[in-house]
Write a structure and sequence with these properties.
Layout: E1 9-14, H1 18-21, H2 27-43, E2 48-53, H3 55-58, H4 63-71, E3 76-81, H5 90-99, E4 109-114, H6 117-130, E5 134-142, H7 147-160, E6 163-165, H8 167-175, H9 183-191
Parallel strand pairs: 1-2, 1-4, 2-3, 4-5, 5-6
């Protein structure tokens, strides 16, 4: 296990969409923590990939999350998909490559947020791990319909080799030191909004 490095990281936000957001465990936490994660990615200039699963049927990304994604100054990519796992869409691999063109696949650090833990997130994570990529699951940014679905999905993904983390740990690892020029701005992000 390694500390996260912003030059090797890519944030992937999976399907935080309309109808599903109303059914997941602790939706307010997932939304607030995912927004903070996006702002941290922007601060440390970490590329972001945001996906939507069949938005015509499931709805668009939660408006608060989408607003922050649209305002990002860091490299960002959008992928509409029908495959449950992101890796099932050939464009996803191309977006990862575009996000980290000078980083070997085995050196990439994919930071994951999204829903649902036991479907699209699980399949994406397992496929990334099979492809020899490091995966860091932000537990506060990942959920599903019911606590048990979420818990057992986390168990399976961590047993397969994914690392469990949270958005604050991600930020502090990207900064590494209080003297980092983004440290004050990071603390401000952590003070914004109440996490439920």
């Amino acid at each position: 296990m390694e500390l996260l490095n912003p030059k090797r990281s890519v944030v992937t936000v999976i399907d935080l969409q309309g109808k599903l957001m109303d059914m997941i465990y602790r939706p307010e936490l997932v939304i607030a923590a995912s927004i903070r994660l996006l702002k941290l990615a922007d601060l440390f200039q970490v590329p972001v990939i945001l996906t939507e699963q069949y938005p015509k049927g499931l709805g668009k990304t939660h408006p608060d999350v989408l607003e922050v994604f649209n305002s990002l100054t860091t490299q960002k990519h959008y992928l509409e998909k029908t495959s449950f796992g992101c890796c099932g869409d050939s464009q996803f691999a191309a977006l990862l490559q575009k996000s980290c063109p000078d980083i070997a696949k085995s050196d990439r650090q994919i930071v994951v947020a999204g829903i649902e833990a036991h479907v699209c997130v699980l399949q994406t994570v397992l496929e990334l791990l099979q492809d020899d990529q490091e995966v860091y699951l932000c537990w506060d940014c990942v959920s599903g319909r019911g606590e048990e679905y979420r818990k057992h999905a986390f168990d399976r993904m961590t047993q397969a080799g994914a690392f469990l983390t949270n958005h604050e740990s991600v930020g502090f690892e990207w900064a590494r030191d209080k003297s980092h020029p983004g440290f004050k701005a990071m603390n401000q992000i952590f003070r914004e909004g109440q996490l439920v």
